[in-house]
Please model this.
Amino acid sequence: MNTLDGLIYGLGVATQPVVLFYCFFGVFLGTFIGVLPGVGALAAISLLLPITFYMPPEAALVMLAGVYYGAQYGGSIASILLRLPGTPQSAVTALEGYPLARQGKAGAALFVAMSSSFIGSILGIAILVLFAPLLAQIGTKFGAAEYFSMMLLGLVAASTVGSEAPAKAMAMVVVGMILGCVGADVNSGALRFTFGQTELLDGVNLVALAMGLFGISEVISNVRTSGARKVEEKVGPKDLLRERRQLKRVKFSILRGTGLGAFFGALPGTGGTIATFLSYAVERKVSRHPEEFGKGAVEGIAGPESANNSAAITAFIPTLTLGIPGDVIMALMLGAMIIHGVQPGPLMLVERPEMFWGLIASFGIGNLFLIVLNLPLIGIWVALLRIPFSYLYPAITVFVCLGVYSVRGSAFDVMSVVFIGAFGYIMALMRFNPALLLLGFVLGPLIETNLRRALLLSRGDLLVFFERPISAVFLSATILLIGWGVFTSLRKIRRPVRQEAGE
Amino acid sequence: MKSTRTLGAGMGLVLALGAITGPAAAQDDWPSEPIHFIIGYPAGSSPDTMGRIVAEGLEASLGQPVVIENKPGAGGAIGVQTMLQGDPAYTFGITTNGPMTTSPKLIPDLTYTVEEDIAPIALIGTSPLILTLNSDAEADTLEDFIAWAKSAPGEITYGSIGQGSGSHLTTELFAATAGVEMLHIPFASFAEVTNSILGQEINAAFMAPSGALAQFKAGNLKILGISSAESSPLAPDVPPIAGTAGMPDDFRAELWIAAIGNSETSPEIIEKLNAEIDAVLATDEAKEKMLAIGWQAQGGSTADLAERIEKDTGVWGAVLEKAGLLPN
Model:
């Protein structure tokens, strides 16, 4: 069966009324789950999974996948409107989206986010269909050395994310990496910074960290400043039509973001996170108005959102074609498929073509549902901001606690979100960028594990990072990037001198 | 004053009577309220799915809802700790072999000891591991592999899903029994191990049957043997390691999932649950569902489970000590 036949066959499967219904239900639920702070796709899929035992397999898997990518859309809504990102990816969206919302341009920010998500997803599906075998092959070429070098590049590139002093950015990344060390060390099994708490054996809860640093700290600072902000007038269809010109401005940002997302998303690991941060860094570098970044540059929403969503699609490549899930959510999807008698992996395309192509075709249909569902809803989402703060902020706090609890049913995590929130508020007062802390937290442990794993495999030979070609390319890019950073900051120091000389 | 005191004494008597008659009454009409299963693993994981299959059967036979609570963390130990905080007559745990055998040795901060706090209820299922090699490896059989390992001590690299995990300890047990030495490369999940073995980065790994067989059928890796004592219905064509290539006949390494209770749970309740779980596990429906996710339904008496816990604690404890994994 060639690709075109497969897609047509898949469309046949995905347009069966029952599958279509569950696809719509999945993306609809996913959007709302994504909007709820902290209740991510992971919690939603694990709660739904037992219910799907009683459904036809196609419908069940299409629905669960819909919840997954639907939640990516929803996640950006809460980050933009309320600065409540549930994942490191949507924390990047909050960087530009939230300032826009505070200026009363929430509608524009949401419109750009939705459109970029949609375009990123559709292009991601095209890439999945055309290049899945190729990308899967590249995935297996990635060993410990390659992951180390790639994540180092991601970390260095993304450290330029904020507009603050480089020393402050570094400090946040390092604090994040230290927090990431908490728990049982993969290489030695030793317990680090657990202080006798069994709850800390698996590390600090990522959702608690994100919710504390962003959500709770924002609530505290709004309580303190009485939360004065511009509230937007009603957003109608005409206003959205007017926003179309924004898309012209960001069309290349979307293409760049999609490319980054599709590539990194296909690699098992934290591809989506790296792609999102990289996309933001790239947009800031190529922008003709870098001074707008941090104050509401739409490019900084469009790039990362398209990266995030195309990565969410291509993350299915290693799961479906190799049986290797890239992250915990994909592992759960894989588990769901096995429970439904589908073994993802190299034989899935031969043994269960209806599942493979049906699922892929449903991605396209689901994304159409999402854009049709979400564009009219923008007005309603923006209206959320008109809720008086005396109701809104207590409600947010309750939802944050519920969301954090939903991850693994741990009261310890709910307590920790309070402390992290207080810490986050102090950092915000001192103008530190919490997104970088999250990045360090996610990438730090992976960089360490892969560094040590690569050295174990090479018996301690450091040259391994330069001998393996893919790793060498990433390392060279990292060195170039650092060199460029040094060069531009030197030029900044010299320029005033030259101007004075010219006068 | 006097009347108050009499009332107080009367209440004391009622309470004391309640305390005496309470457990007996609880046994006669047990269960009279919903039962809670605390599972120390996330929804969708093997122990969770196995626990739910058992719970579904129990709901039908006991006539009370069985509420599943997932409390993942610390390799399942958080779930055991949470279970011990609940009402002993209505709160039970679904655990894997880890928290019952190796975790107390590896994690000094655990608040329970297996001997004093846990009442074994029933062995639910077992899963063997399959020894796999990457497709480029210079060995096709177990004999080749052991010979290769003996000729190059410490050269062969093998992956596992973490220090002290089942796949790590199984490989160490295998190496110690075969008299070979290999280099351990820890990963976080079977997904990472599979990626590494497919990319020819590591040489060998003990992997879960379903994943290993799918890759084997696609020609992505080689299979040498299975760690169960006999060949398993999960992989009928894969020969057991025991008894081949000079390995002893009693070589056996299996992961297992079991139902456990609190040592304060009354023995009558434990026995009743054991019988009911056994009945559920004997149904074809439960067997098929478990086999589909890579597990073989078991059953047996509470004493069987207690014996398995004791035996495995000894075997794995020795492996941990030999591998130098015990914290100081």
Observations:
- Chain B is about 45% helix and 20% strand.
